[in-house]
Amino acid sequence: MMGIWNAHTSVGNILGSIIPGAVISYGWGWSFIVPGAIIAFLGILVFFTLVEFPEDLDLPTPEEVDNQEKGESTRLLDVAQPAQKVVHRPIKFLDALRIPGVVEFALSLFFCKLVAYTFLFWLPFYIKHNPVGGRSLSSEESAYLSTLFDAGGILGGTLAGYVSDLSRKPAVVSFVYLIISVPILLVYSWFGADSYGLTVGLLLLCGFFVNGPYALITTAVSADLGTHESLAGNPLALATVTAIIDGTGSIGAALGPYLAGAMPKWTEVFYMLMGSLGAAAVLLVPTIVREVRESRRQRTQHVFIVNQA
Question: Residue limits of the Major facilitator superfamily (MFS) profile domain (predicted)?
Fold first, then answer.
């Protein structure tokens, strides 16, 4: 579900390429004015229509739903005594870093977003200045073609979330995606401009495997780590964990496009991107080891319980 939800990022990137590409003929300023007006309108719409809490609509809170599922919605004793409200304190920054997997996933996301945002900012420019199938494309055509990277990312993120739910091994899923993305990126740098059809296919594959781990780490992984058993059910830890992981990734998102612009040759840019994907994969190895060990432990426990029965 989180993989599907995270598709909004890629949809926004696609619209962010299509809309400016459609209005740039009226002047480059409209590429900022039109998207800005859309953002302002949607911001106002959300401000006046978003319901923040279930109780605002007389709906049960998540805690009440959980109690109902456990058959504890009605107190049989001490009815007149109000239930004690558990007060949670925000988790400290250093305590969040000690949660197993937070540092590894944060650093891995640093490199994932470095690659993803380098594509987001530079791919239309790269396509425009590198003839596809022997034909030079216009700015509008280049912008449209670059959206295939994010289209592939929607599919990749959704499948990554689905496989992660089945296997309960998000680090393993992300690792496989990242390893496969390296040779695909190499093939695109070598043969991507040979034909239009090949460009389309390789852009979809690049987006599929590059954005898959990015989508998985920023959503499902962050949510899982924010509710880690070591936090003793503290819901205030989720925001801190998510901020650490996504904030670290945002540093990579800012650094990647800058480094690409500073490099004189496109081959160097692609080598940087492939190296970043490899680094993102290597950083997940300690977490993969923990996931495999935990899976074996659970399997052993299951076999023991079955034999005892």
Answer: 1-293
Least trusted range by pLDDT, from 20-34, 82-96, 154-168, 243-257: 82-96
pTM over 0.85: no
Strand partners, 135: 132
Confidence of residue 234 (pLDDT cuts 50, 70, 90): low
> Mapped to the 3 state alphabet, what secondary structure does 196-227 carry?
HHHHHHHHHHHHHHHHHHHHHHHHHHHHHHHC
3-state secondary structure the chain: CHHHHCHHHHHHHHHHHHHHHHHHHHCCCHHHHHHHHHHHHHHHHHHHHCCCCHHHHCCCCHHHHHHHHCCCCCCCCCCCCCCCCCCCCCCCHHHHHCCCCHHHHHHHHHHHHHHHHHHHHHHHHHHHCCCECCECCCHHHHHHHHHHHHHHHHHHHHHHHHHHHHHCCHHHHHHHHHHHHHHHHHHHHHHCCCCHHHHHHHHHHHHHHHHHHHHHHHHHHHHHHHCCHHHCCCCCHHHHHHHHHHHHHHHHHHHHHHHHHHCCCHHHHHHHHHHHHHHHHHCCHHHHHHHHHHHHHHHHHHHHHHHHC
Determine the topology of domain 2-52+92-308 in CATH. Answer: Growth Hormone; Chain: A; (1.20.1250)
- 223 — pLDDT class (breaks 50, 70, 90): low
